[in-house]
Amino acid sequence: MLKKVTASILSLALGTTILAGCGGNEGGGAEDGKVTLELFSNKAESIDTYKGIIAEFEEQNPDIKIKLDAPPEAETVLKTRLTKNDLPDIMSIGGNATYGELGRAGVLHDFTDSELLKSIQPSYVDMIGRLVGTEEEGVFGLPYATNANTVIYNKQKFEELGLEVPKTWDEFIAILDKAKAAGEIPIYFTLKDAWTGMISWNSLGANIAGEDFAEKKTAGDTTFVKSYDEVADKMLTLTEYGHKDNMGVAYGDGNNAFASGKGVMYIQGNWAIPEIVKASPDIELGTFAMPVTNDPAQNKLVSGVDVLLTMSEETDHKEEAMKFIEFMMNKDTSKRYIDEQKAFSAIEEVFQEDPVFEGIKTNFETGAITSFPDHYYPAGMGAENLVQEFLIEKKKEPFLKKLDSEWEKVQNR
Amino acid sequence: MKKKNSVYMLIAIPAFILFFIFHTYPTLQGIFYSFTDWKGYGDWSFVGIKNYLNVFKDERALDAYGFTFKFAIISTILVNIFSLLVAMGLNGKIKFQKTLRAIYFLPYILSILIVGFIFNFIFTHFLPGIGESLGIEFLSKNILGDPKLAWLGIVLVAVWQSVAFNTILYLAGLVTISEDIYEAASIDGAGVWTKFWKITFPLIAPFFTINMVLAMKGFLMVFDQIVALTGGGPGKSTESISLLIYRGGFEGGEFAYQSANAVIYFIVIVVISIIQLKFLEKREVEN
After folding, report:
1. Average pLDDT over chain A, rounded to whole?
2. Residue B286: what pLDDT?
3. What is d(CA B64, CA B246) in angstroms, rounded to the nearest whole number?
4. Same domain flag for A376 and A351
5. Domain containing B106: what range?
6. Which domain of life is it from (chain A) (predicted)?
7. Strands across the sheet with A344-345, in order?
8. In which band, very low, low, confident or very high, does the pLDDT at B42 lie, cut at 50, 70 and 90?
9. B54–A194: do the CB atoms touch at under 8 Å?
């Protein structure tokens, strides 16, 4: 009896080891002399671009194979994999709170001594450095592509309505009124997806509450109630210029609607442009930074690190992974990436020349740029759903207090 | 006898081991981590019951409890009414009975996520179009974008999908009732209502119990439908507890805190299921 039990347990254990063996090989297997690397990307928009770049790389390096993995809810997937100690070899992720956590967890390669770092604009290296904080020394990612939080506008409609790109908040409101009076939808909102509300929120927050809000808030020097009052008011003002189902349209549907000529302006990042153009190839678009205050010199463009490249400290194939990152960072590939993705490059002397970005070009040239405030909020507070709720209920005071209490609550855990 | 025993053991032990490895062990791990400040990775230390105390002070968790219970109770009632009706219809002497049974079972085979995405499309594109052309104000907007109505959309999808499974259980119960009893009742002059309340309903009581418990438990853990339809929005109006635990635990780096939340929720579900069983079984015995 006992023997039988032992035998069955043994056979089961054997079975599991065999299974485990299979799983292990999949990750960084070296079948037929080829090294397979996993490239993890958090952007569904860039899948085709990456496929093209990978094909070119594999042609030049026949002994390296790159497997692209760009799952939905990528950041959650990445964190889950971190829990399992199973990080992908190469990661192409956003410069946000998740990167900060990974950096602090000490699982990413430190690029401090890398030659590649010298070719990157230092302001972006600083930006991601602040995400990691001071507890951990080092540069754990290479900023690659950057983005811009813009107001996208339909050029044809601007001409028809006789509108000019606004320089101040009052001018901005004036053109919104004019568009509304003409029976157009001034701003096409897609607030069913909570994160799309953060585009306006970030432009307003960065310019009104200041770049160092998160640091001050953590130190106890300021609160949302004190610094975000005007932000909340202006958020509500903007939603008055939406369409009748602001809360019912999601991002994907919004891109199609805007492409088909609904709405004069669309508050979105540069990443939405390829999607809009895909839906309507003939559309003529322009962009400008939302003028948040009435002093044009104060109005900065919110830009962040959209993609940074990094690799796992634990990977068995550091050399090969480095080779791919070097290939990505060379000027030709970076140019190709930003052209296809309508993004901006973090690499020196690689410029985005698409006429769509005429309106924000000067911001990049003069450095009138500030970072995304919400990237520095504690991740657990779920700010986007709170903002979405506020836009529905429109109760400013309780909302700002709630932001403060959620922030503190998450920090105390 | 001894030989028979060892056969049972051979069947039971592998199942037990698998269940333990993939179910019991992670549960114990979760309970363990709920007493720490683990973020899901890296270093951690014990913090005692701090996480538990914080859950009780967490308004967001309380809101999620409110929504989940409202959703689960209403959906459970609706599912049981509809599936009992459908089951009685399918049990009657109708044409294409087998084909119809198969068709009514289809929604259960489909993945909840896919059903959710399809309904999402219907709510966003079809219904507002119909509402607009008929001039019905509340239909002309996407109901998923309205915090007061979004939960109804989720109830609709959840009920539509789970009626299939409960119907099968009720059908299984209905076929156990002998035709003779109905014939006897007819001779005594019982109408349709009397037959239902005095014969059908009491005789399928055990199936009613299991359906209530299973449906309630399933709806309390609602997750997929919400991910596919609203993502917890608008605002936090459709944030269920499972979604909150998942979001906070994996996206927000609050693994330990949400583990505590999960442990509490586990206890709540167990208690509710036991109360339901006790209460409904008592009813079975009385009949």
Report:
1. 84
2. 54
3. 13
4. no
5. 60-286
6. Bacteria
7. A64-69, A35-41, A90-93, A305-311, A142-146, A344-345
8. low
9. no
